[in-house]
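Weekly structure sync, notes
Attendees: PL (lead), two postdocs, one rotation student
Agenda item 3: pending single-chain targets
PL asked that the sequence for the first pending target be pasted directly into the notes so everyone works from the same version. It is reproduced below exactly as submitted, 95 residues in total.
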Amino acid sequence: MLLLQTSSGLAQLFFPVAILVVFYFFLIRPEQNKKKKQSDFINNLKKGQRVVTVGGVHGKIVNIEKTVIILDVDRGTKLHVDRNSVSLEMTNPKN
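Predicted structure, written out during the meeting:
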């Protein structure tokens, strides 16, 4: 009888632990990888790259400062945007 209760206790402990492991690998870890990849992208921006901001503005990087990027959006029109607002590179679009 004692053996039966012990195995039942282990089975009850197994399912919450399994749920936490699944939660980590399907939700937390991919989000951490996505944030790291975006951070690396932001830190490696260079002049001349064509980018898209989170607001959907397309432009070419003409100057990079500490926290601000200057984009040439159309015939000399320049916008100052926050460095973290750049979301995609469009220099080599994949169609």
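Discussion points:
- The mean pLDDT is 87.
- The CA atoms of residues 16 and 22 lie 10 Å apart.
Action: rotation student to compare against the earlier draft before next sync.
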